[in-house]
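USER:
Try writing one entry.

ASSISTANT:
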Amino acid sequence: MILMVMAVASYLSWILTMQRIPQMVSRMIVEQSAGAATFLVVVNILMIILGMFLDAVSALTITTPVLLPAALALGVNPVLFGVMLAVNLSIGLLTPPVGLNLYVTAGIAKIGLVTISRAVIPFIKLIILILVFMIMFPGAFVF
């Protein structure tokens, strides 16, 4: 199943690249964006939502070729951008409806999904706080 998802995501990524969709989207984002911080906020929200419904590898395979050129055009450090994508997807893996890590943890601990979902809320808040700091002070996170 995972290999099928990866295959479809890779194929979709290839089609997007061949049709030059990333360049068109990047140009549109740069023209419409009010700046790098606004772009990062929108990307964070998008990646959290995608993380709720897709696994991390598929979401990265689909979105990175589209979003990275826009991030570079806005002057966002590519290492910081990659870390932000990974952190956002980790939030998605901890949130229902498809939060894979929730199901794995609930199965291992032999507790209900609702119980584990409530237990991860403080951690999700902490991760979101770190993301806010990454947007506000990007230089502090890249060495």
Summary: The radius of gyration is 16 Å. Residues 36-53 form the longest helix (18 residues). Residues 7 and 58 are 9 Å apart (CA to CA). The chain has a mean pLDDT of 82.
